[in-house]
TrEMBL record:
<dbReference type="GO" id="GO:0006869">
    <property type="term" value="P:lipid transport"/>
</dbReference>
<dbReference type="GO" id="GO:0005886">
    <property type="term" value="C:plasma membrane"/>
</dbReference>
<keyword id="KW-0597">Phosphoprotein</keyword>
<comment type="similarity">
    <text>Belongs to the OSBP family.</text>
</comment>
<feature type="region of interest" description="Disordered">
    <location>
        <begin position="304"/>
        <end position="327"/>
    </location>
</feature>
<feature type="compositionally biased region" description="Polar residues">
    <location>
        <begin position="360"/>
        <end position="371"/>
    </location>
</feature>
<dbReference type="InterPro" id="IPR037239">
    <property type="entry name" value="OSBP_sf"/>
</dbReference>
<dbReference type="InterPro" id="IPR018494">
    <property type="entry name" value="Oxysterol-bd_CS"/>
</dbReference>
<keyword id="KW-0175">Coiled coil</keyword>
<dbReference type="InterPro" id="IPR011993">
    <property type="entry name" value="PH-like_dom_sf"/>
</dbReference>
<keyword id="KW-0813">Transport</keyword>
<dbReference type="Pfam" id="PF01237">
    <property type="entry name" value="Oxysterol_BP"/>
</dbReference>
<keyword id="KW-0446">Lipid-binding</keyword>
<dbReference type="GO" id="GO:0005829">
    <property type="term" value="C:cytosol"/>
</dbReference>
<feature type="region of interest" description="Disordered">
    <location>
        <begin position="681"/>
        <end position="752"/>
    </location>
</feature>
<keyword id="KW-0445">Lipid transport</keyword>
<feature type="compositionally biased region" description="Basic and acidic residues">
    <location>
        <begin position="689"/>
        <end position="730"/>
    </location>
</feature>
Length: 786
């Protein structure tokens, strides 16, 4: 047996042919003896690998916010995506000399957390928590990262044989080296295929020649030419054996090489399939976002009620059946932290999307009913807030642990509105109650009432100023009958503890009343305000009676840092007539949470506990609701170890969106359009109205020193009146008069204390008479509190 021949020895075989001059003779013999042209031998030349020319790689650059630590939070960084590597720098100027970090996308996992946040991790050693400036920018980055990962993932797999390099190339040359390796492998395989083809031709030719020689040997008589024929047969048999061995070795090399790379090809194929699915999903999501942006743009010039009709598209046409399933195929919700979100929502089966909302989608209000006819021009500006410095610590260090109402505060901490006016701001989005009054279903009505409860907090997001504490007997009226169809009245019914009663009635079929008492504590670093009391909303047409309570308001960074406000807690909105309930959860802000800030979630259930609607949004921006088609247990475990409920929902419908603040609001205490008009002077109001309060008026005009002196005078006057009432109460020896309130301002003028028939709680309910007194201009019964 000949020694093992490699494929490269085929070249030697060809040279041997040329040295013997057998190529021409064999071809000649093939023509003379067989009558057919034999296959011409090809020169077997092993192709040398060429240096590949790498294709230019796509590069994506931009600013992102990267999570650093719990002290600094998210910091702005310049990110560069190139050749499957994501690198970041502190600034664009650092790109030439200092790279702060690099992560290889080929082995990384990309996870989307919410509308702006996403995470890139390579299995534990490197994890980037990133935040984009907007949802559109986040989607652009996700698309670029997924494309880069798909392009380079199949080039980076662990070595399957010992012949692979044991060390990985440098980060800046890794992608190019792996691309060169694949190109070289493909060229080697092509060369092996050419070698196999050449060997096949040679084996066929030499086999035919050997067969002819054997046939000729059988017809030759023994003589002088016998030895020559035997020599030729021996030579051709040797060449055939050499060629056969080369063929076998070439096949063996090809098989070994194919086996070495088969796993990589399988992984690359699987990666391509997965990437195709991801690209299809991304394309679908981009199409939906584009459609949403188009509808939002068109909806900016039309009435909000037109957006609530899913049966009408953005062009005002009724879509076909196919369009309905395309519009309502998916419903997106923000993911909450495990200790916040108590349920999971997934899109419902498309068959359910044939159904639409009834009153949420129908009965759109006509332009005539939405149009506001102004009867008087309200002011749109107040004097800008002056910039006065104040030593906070000198005031606060003696106030720790005291009740807020007993702390003497200068007007520097205030805003030029009283607590009664702030309470009236709950009616900023009264349109939600107008729509709720028109609902035929109590469950859909509950959605609007729940959105109204959340909307009342939207005005507090930047309002870090403390409202003026109302004096006992102080009132505030908000008469918007001609503009908005409602009028409301607030009165301070108690001073220690401070409590205010509020009553609003609308010509459109609803009544809102509440009594709020504030329990507040200063904790040094933050201020907690706990509203006590229930809020009632009654609809005349359906006689539905709703009640709920407010959540806790926290003002952070009282001593050091920028003031900011957070709302946290839970609200249960209850319909006492039907037993329907909506449980709302306000997620508190946490340094350890990467969830969307100010998030609110809720579920609307009937009296049997069956979920019908899911609410989601933020208390400073918007609220949406989705109809629940099916619900089941089986989601991931919550913080308490129980399985979360999975709700299959239809596409979300927007219930409420915050109205942008007026221009220059940052210089006007961040007042909304309604808040700017609350302290506007009006004729005919009661002498106890907050608009007539002198210290508040002086502060609004920027005369803070005079406001502080006037505020101190009013507070001292109130203390004197209170001490006088206490002395009269102590002098009263008649048991029949025990429990009677004095007539010198201690008894509320327009409200009386009763036991609420629904909640069985003692509360102050409007007794009537105020608006009649205003029409008559008779305020003789009002005390002189200013």
């Amino acid at each position: 047996m000949l020694s093992r021949w490699g494929t490269t020895q085929v070249v030697c075989v060809c040279k041997h042919f040329r040295s013997l001059g057998l190529q021409e003779s064999l071809a000649h013999e093939g023509v003379n003896h067989s009558g057919k042209d034999t296959v011409k031998p090809r020169a077997v030349v092993m192709s040398e690998p060429k240096v590949p020319i790498p294709a230019p790689e796509d590069t994506y650059k931009g600013w992102l916010f990267k999570w650093t630590n719990y002290i600094k939070g998210y910091q702005r960084r310049w990110f560069v995506l190139s050749n499957g590597l994501l690198s970041y720098y502190r600034s664009q100027a650092e790109m030439g000399h200092t790279c702060r970090g690099t992560i290889n996308l080929a082995t990384a996992n990309i996870t989307v957390e919410d509308s702006c946040n996403f995470v890139i991790s390579n299995g534990g050693t490197q994890t980037y928590h990133l935040k984009a400036s907007s949802e559109v920018e986040r989607q652009r980055w996700i698309t670029a990262l997924e494309l880069a990962k798909a392009k380079f993932s199949f080039l980076f797999f662990p070595a399957d044989d010992s012949g692979d390099d044991s060390t990985s190339p440098a980060a800046s040359q890794g992608a190019g080296s792996r691309n060169s390796e694949v190109q070289s492998t493909l060229r080697t395989l092509n060369s092996k295929v050419e070698d196999l083809s050449t060997c096949n031709d040679l084996i066929a030719k030499h086999g035919s020649a050997l067969q002819r020689s054997l046939s000729e040997l059988e017809g030759v008589r023994l003589g002088g030419e016998t030895s020559e024929k035997i020599r030729q047969v021996t030579e051709r048999a040797t060449l055939f054996r050499i060629t056969s061995n080369a063929m076998i070795n070439a096949c063996r090399d090809f098989l070994a090489l194919a086996q070495a790379h088969s796993k990589r090809w399988q992984k690359a194929l699987q990666a391509e399939r997965e990437q195709r699915v991801r690209l299809e999903e991304t394309l679908e999501q981009l199409a939906k976002q584009h459609n949403h942006l188009e509808r939002a743009f068109r909806g900016a010039t039309v009435l909000p009620s037109s957006q609530s009709n899913p049966a009408i598209d953005s062009k005002g046409q009724v879509p076909g059946k196919g369009d309905v399933s395309d519009e309502d195929e998916e419903n997106e919700f923000f993911d909450a932290c495990e200790d916040v979100q108590e349920f999971i929502t997934v899109p419902a089966d498309p068959k359910y999307h044939r159904s639409v909302f009834t009153s949420l989608a129908s009965n759109p209000e006509s332009p005539q009913s939405q149009e506001v006819v102004p009867v008087r021009k309200r002011r749109s500006r107040i004097p800008d807030k002056p910039n006065y410095s104040l030593n906070l610590w000198s005031i606060m260090k003696n106030c720790i642990g005291k009740e807020l109402s007993k702390i003497p505060m200068p007007v520097n901490f205030n805003e030029p509105l009283s607590m009664l006016q702030r309470l009236s701001e709950d009616l900023e989005y009264y349109e939600l109650l107008d729509r709720a009054a028109k609902c035929q279903s109590s469950l859909e009505q509950m959605c609007y009432v729940a959105a109204f409860t959340v909307s009342s907090y939207s005005t507090t997001v930047h309002r870090t100023g403390k409202p003026f504490n109302p004096l006992l007997g102080e009132t505030f009226e908000l008469d918007r009958v001609q503009e908005s169809g409602y009028r409301s009245l607030c009165e301070q019914v108690s001073h220690h503890p401070p409590a205010a009663a509020h009553h609003a009635i609308s010509e459109r079929g609803w009544t809102l009343r509440q009594e709020i008492a504030l329990a507040s504590k200063f904790r040094g670093k933050y201020l907690s305000i706990m509203p006590l009391g229930s809020i009632h909303c009654i609809f005349e047409k359906s006689n539905n009676h709703y009640t709920w309570k407010k959540v806790t308001t926290t003002v952070h960074n009282i001593i050091v840092g920028k003031l900011w406000i957070d709302q946290s807690g839970e609200i249960d909105v209850v319909n006492h007539r039907t037993g329907d309930r909506c449980h709302l959860k306000f997620a508190p802000y946490s340094y350890f949470s990467r969830d969307v800030a100010r998030k609110v979630t809720g579920v609307v259930t009937d009296k049997d506990g069956k979920a019908h609607y899911v609410l989601s949004g933020t208390w400073d921006e918007k609220m949406e609701c989705s109809r629940v088609m099916q619900s089941s247990r089986g989601g991931e475990n919550g913080a308490d170890g129980r399985q979360k409920t999975v709700y299959q929902t239809l596409k979300a419908k927007e219930l409420w969106r915050k109205t942008p603040l007026p221009e220059g609001a940052e210089n006007m205490y961040y007042f909304s359009t309604l808040a700017l008009t609350l302290n506007e002077p009006e004729e005919g109001v009661a002498p106890t109205d907050s608009r007539r309060r002198p210290d508040q008026r002086l502060m609004e005009q920027g005369r803070w020193e005079e406001a502080n002196a006037e505020k101190q005078r009013l507070e001292e006057k109130q203390r004197t009146v209170r001490r006088e009432r206490e002395r009269e109460a102590n002098r009263s020896a008649n048991p029949a008069e025990e429990g009677k309130e004095p007539a010198d301002g201690g008894k509320p003028m327009w409200f009386e204390r009763q036991v609420d028939p629904m909640t069985r709680e003692p509360t102050h309910i409007y007794r009537g008479g105020y608006w009649e007194a205003k029409e008559q201009g008779n305020w003789d019964s009002c005390p002189d509190i200013f």
